[in-house]
Amino acid sequence: MKDWFSYAPKPDVSVSDSPRLMTIAALLIAAGIFVVDIYTPLGIAAAALYSVVVVLAARLTERQGLLAIGFGCMALTVLAYAIQHGSQHELGPLMRCVGSLCAILLTTLIALKTQEAAKTSREQAGLLELTHDGVFVRKIDDCITFWNFGATQLYGWTKEDALGQASENLLHTIYPIPLADLTAELYRTGRWEGEIVRTHKDGHQIEISSRWSLQRDNKSRPVAILETNNDISERKRIEEERRQQELELRLFIDTIPTLGWICRPDGSAEYLNKRWLDYTGLALADAQGWSWKCVFHPDDLERMLEHYQQCLQTGELFEDEARMRRFDGVYRWMLFRAQARRDAQGQIIKWYGTNTDIEELKSAELAVLRSQAYLDDAQRLSHTGSFAWKPTTNEMIWSKEAYQILGVDLSAAPTIGLMFDQVHEDDREFVKQQIKRAVNGEREFDFETRLLTSHDKALRHLHIRACRVAYGSGEEEIVGALMDVTGTRHAQAALQSAQADLAHAARVATLGEISASIAHEVNQPLAAIVTLGQAGQRWLKREKPDMEEALSSLSGIVSEANRAAEVIQRVRQFAKKAKPDVVKLDINELVRDVARLVRHEALTNHVTLRMVLGEGIPMVTGDRIQLQQVIVNLMMNGLQAMAKTHERPRILTAQTASQSGTVLVVVEDCGCGIGSKPAEELFTAFYTTKENGMGMGLSICRSIIEAHGGRIWAAPNAGHGMSFQFTVPVDDQASSEATACSPAST
Q1: What is the SS3 assignment for 691?
Q2: pLDDT tens for residues 196-226?
Q3: Cα 276 to Cα 356: distance, rounded to the nearest angstrom
Q4: Which of 57-61, 132-136, 212-216 shows the lowest mean pLDDT across its residues?
Q5: Highest-pLDDT range among 60-74, 232-246, 540-554, 725-739
Q6: Which of 682, 600, 605 is nearest to 640 (CA)?
Q7: What angle do CA 404, 406, 410 make, to 5 degrees?
Q8: Buried/exposed 457-484: b ≥16 CB within 10 Å, e otherwise
Q9: Which alpha helices (H) appear in 60-193, and where do they start and end?
């Protein structure tokens, strides 16, 4: 094996190595050999000494010069032979000459070979000096014989500091395995490489990637070790940081509250986090690759895989929903999301994904859909639509039934203008006012309007109720309902007509009950007329007619006749079937009129009528006949309630009073009362305490009073009997509904 360590550059320490001295010495030796070869009669091959000259020349000149000197020495040998022996060619001298020539030629060739080897070694040593790797050579006894510049940079020790030192004492090496085992492997294979730790000159430790090569001599005995070393401290630090980051990433993936996974570019699973494995009950080895497919519902797997493969090819974000089997065998809905990670060239190197349990969300969505279906059906059956409107942005939403009620095609975008276009012309100004209220910030809305739908020109009555809703974001929205009350209004009109007929029948029936009182009221003025007529006749039949008394009798007749006419007129009005006539009324006068109607009935039943009429009672607005009907009904009920009362006086009291913007009327009896029965039931239709009663009187009374904007109620007295009371607004605060008051107006 070539001993390339022997040619490592050594410091010049001898003067004999000077090129000039060596040249002079070589010339002198060559001259001396030439003289000796010519003049020495000894029988030796003196010319062989030219080999010394060739050896010296090998240290002074390159290949061409060495060849020239070698051939020159051979020429001098031949010249000396020719001078000494001339034409005599004796075998001995000739053989000595040939031997000398062979020795010179062999020495020259050996010198050339040695020179070439030295050149190669010098070039190799130069390359080792140029490399950035730390390279040094140490003998088997650990003595350093070569130390390049890279080693100086790596360890901090200069060549002068390192040469001749033991590497262990200089570098304090820490080996990954026992040194004896490492040396045994080096001797066995001739090479060793691994990572070691050495100490820099300043004391800090360096992680080294080291490669060792063993040199052996011609007898295969180990003589030296070549080490090539690289500092991998930074690389190890980066690797450690990367390993730590990967560990932290793995811990993060395992601890995040979701099911996470990593897939290869082909979609096969590389890693699934602990939560995923715990959720499915699978081991990591059982879920890697494509084995994870076993946990998906068979009905969802094919569809999801098709979508997954498509995203694997395009690199698009993967998002899908499917059912996944839990460890207990229950399938639950999951939301799957996966994002591709690409390298610098844009190639997909990994897929990172998560599974999110959306079972509750799915159930909520299903409940919402079911509720929406129920709401749509409920709105369709009740003819009620819903809407939402943001006045600031004019955004609007209608339900399906709202489209149907408004007569607008479902494809049309809902706007407040489109809704306004359906409003009846006579109601548009009123609806504009409501819209203006909404824009100005009003909170509550409750009104009715009429629609004239554009597609069929059908007239519809629409009841709108809405309120303003404020959200946490600061936005406000008006949310409301549209109710098609066309059928209701038609039914109310029919009910109003029926109740009017019923009220008329009730009044006629009441007239029948108080017919004796009516007859009494009519008989009184008729009897007075007869008496006054007879008196007038007597005044006129005198010898001297008393004209003044006769005229007085005639005036009385006219007065009583008018009185009888008024009684008949009141009865006719009370009995007739006519539309309501709303006028200003004096409630005290109304009570007196009714008292006159029932006075005879009271006398017949031995009941005392007591009138407690307040002073300064304000006027009320309403229909005279309807309010008369209420008071008549209450008084007749009181009279009938006392019919079987014998142990105490029978007194029926009628009172009036002014009370907080209303007029109060109280009818109080001292009859038997209603016992423990709820007083509110008295005003229920067909409820009666009489043996032959229909149960409609008080119900009609409540309808009339409520239509006038008032309230009616009953309560037992502290002693005996009942008190029936009602209120109606005074004229300046009368309800606007009184303009259409009737028994059917509520």
Answers
A1: coil
A2: 999 999 999 999 999 999 989 888 899 999 9
A3: 10
A4: 57-61
A5: 232-246
A6: 605
A7: 50
A8: eeebbbbbebebeeeeeeeebbebbbbb
A9: 63-85, 91-130, 149-155, 159-162, 167-171, 179-189
- Average pLDDT value for residue range 126-140: 78
Q: Inform me whether the pLDDT recorded for 131 exceeds 80.
A: no
First-last CA distance in the chain: 126
Q: Tell me if residue 525 falls in helix, strand or coil.
A: helix
Residue count (the chain): 746
Element containing residue 606 per DSSP (H, E): none
**Rounded-to-integer distance, Cα 435 and Cα 443, Å:** 12
Residues whose CB is less than 8 angstroms from the CB of residue 366 and which lie 6 or more positions away in sequence, other chains included? none
Among 102, 109, 137, 113, which residue's Cα sits nearest to residue 9? 137
d(CA 349, CA 347): 6
Burial of 522 (0-12, 13-18, 19+ CB in 10 A): middle
Nearest Cα to Cα of residue 698 among 671, 724, 729? 724
Sign of the torsion formed by the C-alpha atoms of 568, 573, 574 and 576: positive
How many Cβ atoms are within 10 Å of 739's Cβ, its own excluded? 11
Q: 449 vs 237, 680, 740, CA distance in Å?
A: 82, 34, 17
CA distance 518 to 496: 29
Q: Which two tokens stand for residue 278?
A: 């715990």
Edge-first strand listing for the sheet containing 459-470: 395-398, 384-390, 476-484, 459-470, 444-452
Residue pLDDT, tens place only, 486-544: 777 777 666 656 655 655 565 565 555 555 556 555 665 676 677 667 777 777 777 77
pTM equals: 0.36
* Structural tokens at position 530: 């007869």
Q: Which residue type does 326 have? A: R
Residue type, 164: G
- Per the CB < 8 A criterion, the answer to whether 202 and 172 are in contact is no
What is the CB-side half-sphere exposure of residue 164 using CA atoms within 13 A? 3
Report in angstroms the alpha-carbon separations of 700 from 300, 310, 495, 627.
67, 77, 12, 11
Instruction: Work out the mean pLDDT of the chain and round it to a whole number.
Output: 79
